[in-house]
Queue: 2 jobs
Job 1
Amino acid sequence: MALEIFQTSNFQVQYELTDYSQAELLLLRPRAQVLLGGCEPDYATMCGWFGITVGDGLGPANRVVITLTKNVRGASNTGFSTNNPQMSVNPNLGGSDDSVLGLFVDEMSEILMSFKGNWDPLNSGGEGLSRVAGELLHPNSAPNTKDNNVNAWLASDPTTDPTSAKADSVFRKDWVSANFTGGDLRAGGSVAGDQDSYSFGCAMLFIYYLKDQLGFTMDEIVQNGTGTLDGTYRSLTKTNRGGFSPFRRLIDFNFPTTNSPSLTDNPFPLPLLHTGTPLAQNEDGNGDFLAGDFDGDNIADMFFIKRKNTGTNTIEIHVLSGESNFQKFILQTGTALPQSEDQNGDFLLADFDHDGIPDLFFIKRRNTGTNQIEVHILSGKSKYQQFLVRAGTSLAQTEDLNGDFAIADFDRDGVPDLFFIKRRNTGANSIEVHVLTGKSNYQQFVVHTGTPLTQGEDRNGDFLVADFDRDGIPDLYFIKRRNTSTNQIEIHVLSGQSSYQQFAIHTPTVLAQSEDVNGSFQAADFDSDGRADLFFIKRRNTGTNSIEVHVLAVPV
């Protein structure tokens, strides 16, 4: 043998001279140098993803030996070893440097999986991660046509493909809750767990979904590796809900048929939903819209609180199911509130009595019997026929003109608290947050504070309260609709953890500032990831002549 060898601290790149012609060596030697120069920085990046110290388990005494050989299709490795882990890489002499560096990352990530132990490189989940890793560090190695890694799962029916595994039993099978670990092919023979394009295509899409749709970093994704991608999702989102259902719903909305391929392995971020509804556009002037999970399926539903021109002469509730993409009503009912209360206050949703069904809060701001702002809560369980609470608060009725109300559990005692967002006539010359505790029946304050938002922002947008950063403390969303620097509707989120003193995000949305006059906003979790999404309820100038729902994932 006549090996030519080059070394770094953790790697040895080598090839057998007699395997190549002189013409090929003229291409191979610079290719080897590119690999030699790229392996250490790529390895360092991957160590960060895995939470491993650079050199841990490797070093001069245990270098990874990378053999450049034409005798392998793509690349392979033998896993981690204390006796020089082995990797074989095709030098792809007719291709690009990035193609070879991408193969190195694929294989090195699998060696790190076997070293760390929280991913299995021999199943579909591990194979998906290794291919994503290569594409992220060397984007030019990623296919950018329909002939890519994900379209087998995304756009092909495996039941009609004789080259698919028998385990690929349905179109878009759930390879998130389970891994493919190998099995028989329909045409005979078998396929290894890391070679089935349907299952590892699903895995790749789901990892990209975690990263670029839900906003998790590669460090977070890789270090939260468990037995399945679903376990990783649950660990990241801190929920006990499965990840495949919201992922599949998003995919089906954006790629609705078997003839809907993606031009890249990573199509994210994708819009969560754009749709008309059964509500005619002329309902715009008759009420307000709220978002909350009425039917307990972890998908926010849309509540139309009809306040005028009702058939029952009461305030009415009409709930469109989120699971149906807001096409089907799951409740249409009058309430115990007469229609004449329309002019007296506002409506909010939260679960006051812990039964899992949103209750309707009527914040009575005018014509109260107590001369205070009042809270009247109708039970969701009674389909909004029975009151749970009817009480004055510690806020004088004169505060009606000074701000808006929101509802969320600030003190994490399980009882929704009342937020008064004071926008005008504040003592601090800033937007203020005042929170009355639900436990005290809205008699005692738990927060009085100014914020970094100047009082001058009052006329520029609206305020919502929801948990952005998944820490269990409601954050304050300022939806800036006017006078934005980006000419887009903007989101500015103040962290509840900081008592609304520090911003968690400043970002424009895809909505043009001109949409300001066309609708209203809500924040609720539509995609079941534990973070509130932004609902734009388009009420005017719609293309469908109906009330429209546009759901945007809030970026990070």
Job 2
Amino acid sequence: MRALLTVVLLATVIAATTPTLGPGTLASSEIAVSRYDMLRTGVATEVGAITTPIVRWTFLTNGTVATSPLAADLDGDGDVEIFLGEFKPGDAGDGSRLGYVLDGAGHVEYTVPMRHNSAAAAAADFDGDGALEVLFSEGSHSDVSGGIGFAAFNGEDGSALWRFETPFDGGEGFFASPAFTDIDGDGALDLIAGSMDHTAYALRGTDGSVLWRSLRFEHYVRHSTPMADLDGDGALEVTFATEAGIVHTLDAMSGAEEWTVDLGDIVAATPSVGDFDGDGSLEIAYALVVAGGHAVLRGDGSLVWQNPVHDFSYRGSALVDVDGDGLVDLIDGDSNDPSVTAYRGTDGAVLWDVTLAAAWASGPIVAADTDGDGAMEVLVGSDAGLRALDAATGMTEWFLPLPPVRGEPLVKDIDGDGEAEILVGAGDGQLYVLGTPPSVAATLRIEPRTLNLRSNGQSINAHLEFAEPVAGMVDPSTLRLEGVLADRVQVHGNSTIHAKFSRDALIQVLSPGESVEVCATGALTDGRTFRACDVIRVILPGK
């Protein structure tokens, strides 16, 4: 219920900022960006069924680091593609790095040439042709010969559309996922992003030409771009926090500065936008590296609250209702003294705080219902691997050792089975795709074939026949019939199990009918699961 409430709260806010496409509005078509939406809430809306994750498959890039993936139906065939970039040492050069586009099983559909360390920036229809384009970014803290920036490609086949390269001004290129809106009124989406050259740019979606550029900032911007009607005037704003800790909030249409606030030295993570106090207006949360903790500002730049509980907040928060009061709260973490903290959205009070067993923990935090139980989990990467916490309590639900995970986890159904997988790029150059263990095929036969709800008897018999010789691997404590735990389990040979279930317990969950489906579920000791169903007759004489 809390997961649904969080999604509804955020969907309401997002919907309020997504009218029909026109000058100065967001778009209603499919857009894939980092932090999941233009408010950069870090909340995934797709639901998984993962209670004990396994690595389904991996993909090895040519880099030493696989960057955070994004996913969308790039070619319009109804199936999702995954796209990601790579980091590796060395100078810039044409084709020295690649952007990768994979199908849902990890096979390469195509690659695109990049000049420097690259990342998946976005997918959207930003040339107005009705099909998606894919955008990759290149970024650097230093001067790279020849220029780097954004590169746009046709989503279907990877053919080049345009490049935009920033000049060098203390840094170069973009680490940002841009915001999208129609700035020039041509009916196509345009892009807005802060860059490493101390400037924010608005680029025409059709060709990458500059529509506006901000005045020079005092330092570079390396986070993705939040965009919303922050002050309630009916027009969109974008907000940027520089490495110097200065916030610049600009009119999205013109780039004119509306207000600026000094939050202290270094604000590096992507800010998040939400209605933290339930007043119907939006606030912005900024993570503070030196001062520590978070500061939440109103849409006019005035302070709501600041809590410096940790001295190195360098991640990117997730907005989720932690305490069940119907308002979004904020979950973020400390990187150099690894921990995760939940702050109450109304006043910044700490709701829970947990320590991570890792030497370093950076990269955005993501909230999602990853196991399908109706409650939110929080996905937290570190140099030790990936951990899922209960969003309400901070308790660990599972931990998977992996190479360093410093990017944003992507929660997305990539294989079309209706259940979301978890995708993370890691510090060994590989993309890891996590999911549930594969199921084992089995058939079920229930005896008696007709169950009289008024008759006497102690047990219902179930006969399970497996397609593989795994009967001895069934964990008896997991074997259930319509949720009722087995009273007795007997293994017969390699592939057959006979089990008895309490008749009294089963009649509490079964209803009369000529064809009633009854299903047995369970798990093997290797983590695989099974589900087998039978149809029986259930009667209630006198009714």
